[in-house]
Write a structure and sequence with these properties.
Length: 90
Amino acid sequence: MSQENLAASLREINETGELPERPPRRRGHLAEPADIPESGTLHGEDAVKRQLAGYIAAFDAFHTDPQEIVDLGDQVVVSAVLKGRSRHTG
């Protein structure tokens, strides 16, 4: 996947508030900082989709803010800040 395709997928999440029909990467991994409750590294398309869908469901105005996108040829690494306002606490 190219940086451009990944950037387009992240823009789609930001614009629609929904996951793209085709996820950014079939064998995705999502590593979360240790200070997030129940954090860890998620492996595989389904795990990444479930986690992102959970964020979208939990937060109003959910938004991804990519800090760095690195194309490693057959892999793309993204460092991003996820932002939103909790639907339950405001």
